[in-house]
Amino acid sequence: MKHLLFGLAIFFVVGCGGVPQNARHALAVTSSGVMAADAVIAPVYTRQAAACYDAHATAEGFLECRAGVDTAEQVLRTTHRSLLATQAGLDAWDAGDEGESFFSAAPCLTHSIGQLSQVMVEGGFDLPLPLVKGLSLMDAFGMECVP
Q: Which one of 20, 71, 102, 122 counts the least CB within 10 Å of its CB?
């Protein structure tokens, strides 16, 4: 079954513009989405950290106060790392590995984008449209994230 899905994914990419142009487009949109998410999260994170520092005399209170924005920042970092790993997989594909590295990393990027979107929504952040588009585009490369 896994080989069938991999074959279908290769067929989809090749059939819709060639290898790896669609993947490059998906990563470019996703990268814009991650940058937009960072632009939304960073100022809130900075304000929240300052407010928590002013409001709490203990480290425990400070950390508890900013737990929500810390989670968003941690998931954003994970998504950034997944993006870099997927880009490296795409570069390897360009160099001749037939997409194996890309198709190993892409599902984990999709998973990370989904987590980031969920954390942003739960935290009351505005969800950037490029992040939503990136999730949709990366989801086309399918399969399951195996860490």
A: 122
